[in-house]
Amino acid sequence: MEPTHTEVVSRDLTVQNPEGLHLRPAGKLARLATEYNCSLELERCGQVADCRSMISLMTLGASQGSVLTLRASGPDADSAVEAIARLFESRFDEL
Amino acid sequence: MLELQGIAVSPGVAVGKALVFDREGYSIDRCLISKEETASEWQRLVTAVERAHRALADRGEKTSASWGADLGGIFTAQQQLLVDPHIRSEMDHLIRDNLYSAEYAVSEVFAKYAAAFRKASSSFLAERAADVRDVERTLLEALTGKPAQTLKSLMNEAIVVSHDLTPGETASFDPEKVLAICTEAGGPGGHTAIVARGMEIPAVVGVGNFLHNIRSGDEVIIDGHLGRIFVSPDQATLDRYRERRMARASIVSQLSELKDFPATTTDGVRVELMANVEFPNEAQASLTRGADGVGLYRTEFLYLGHDTEPSEEDHYLAYLKVLKDMQGRPVVIRTLDLGADKMGQTRPIEPENNPFLGLRSIRLSLRNPSLFRVQVRAILRAACAGDCRIMFPMVTTLDEFRSAKFLLRSVTEDLVSEGVRVPSSLQVGMMVEVPAAVLMLDRFIEEIDFVSIGTNDLTQYTLAVDRSNDSVADLYQACDPAVLRLIQRTQQITSEHGKSTSVCGEMSNNPAYALLLVGMGIRTLSLAPSAIPVIKKAIRSVTLGQCEAMAWRALRLGTAREVDAFLMNQLAGLVPEIVLQA
Q: Counting CB atoms within 10 angstroms of each CB, which of A71, B67, B165, B315 has the fewest?
């Protein structure tokens, strides 16, 4: 039986790389998100993007210093949030 | 006639028909399909996505190979856009529910996002619109099986006029067909500028909105020296530019016949003409111009215009390509000359008051040994592929040179202990760009293998003139007697010790100055590949005695203006046929 209530894991993440969430970082994030089964969304100033869709991530227009809220719910939500937070902290491997 | 002013980023003049490269105008049939066709239409789109995916992968690999992995990575990200779930479900909806043809659906969805990006307030998002259109075009090409308006296969020569150009587009141009480039957007440090210069295509960017005033087929003049554009020029302007271009073309064709002849004076003194190159691809081009080697390989391009620090492998592959392409001819690699006007990712924490007197060039490298070691390792690993030499820029004190050499030695030892083959001996030189180094050269000389004079910085530091400052730019004169005396002293000290001096600044590109330098005893000049033919012609037209007489007289004059007037007059007498070029 499906659980009736799924807990939402959420965390605030800061965009640290100078170029912001542009083409390559959004591509990397979308690729990473497809490895998890939980729902993953990123919110900036009321605008919500699906982490698996690179185009919706780019539409957030998040530049360096933007604070985004990541929300995940589903079986592997915790590990997904951890992995995505690491990607932000590594500045998407772009200096 | 419409006259416009932009930023000149790649020199040269072109007169020809405009080709307005307007991606917004990509025309596709807005056709609808029947309900029964939706499944097969969707399948057609899925197959096209797969084909486009392969095309982008291919473009990424080719771009990585020619211009580095960072530019190549743009296309990897574009591949991800192709399989984006949102884009996919929107296209699915348009085909199944609205009965759009696949082409119609693709253009509808991509155009929507490109327009949203363009309107975005942040400039970084606006620039991404070009990437969205790039992916759309690739997908439409895969669907229709015929190339969209592309410049790869231009039938006729044309001047490409566009709002902006993507890196992919610029790198794919055929320099034989694209006479010049002109864009509304862009700046001197953009990809279009850097690539156009490397490909020797005249270019003017940053013109501002004017595409509504021009149509394909209109006559246009692009002046890549002055950054000027004439749309539908009047007869007088056209005649003026045609005349100049014809005179230039006839000289160029005469000069190209000299390609396989050495630069030797009529009395048999050989002068080596080396190329200054920036991109690995230019090595091949410099051979076509008849270069004897690469006298200055600038390595900053690996850093500029990229988002990430280049890896050791990026450096290595670039150097390996140049060394292999030059087939055993000497290649002098200058280590990083970043700072001041050229910044990579390693920016100083505090903005500097006087960046040209600040943490730049060898100072920056020595302060960041981890960055410096990566480059030196790559140079040493590639060195066995040809006649590789290394030179450190902007050395001011003996301590700096010793520290750089110490680092070189320690990297060599590391590589040897890792079992990597490195050359048994490597010539190590320094660039003379600071008067202090000239004054101390008698102490440097025992520790260096060769010297290359960078006249651009030497002039700036000797005359205390920032040449990027308009109010004093007229004081910047490479032929100032003070600069000439420093060159003379450098040449005398090196030749007394049996070592060579080359001159690699812009001064070598000017035929009158080149003859003066030969008269002063310089036997190696390193110059822009495009200037090699005309300098070769000048040298092959004179005797060493004539050059020495020029130098003797010039070194006794008191002002830059006198020197310049004297040299121009001499050139007109000795090699009148090339004076138009100057």
A: A71
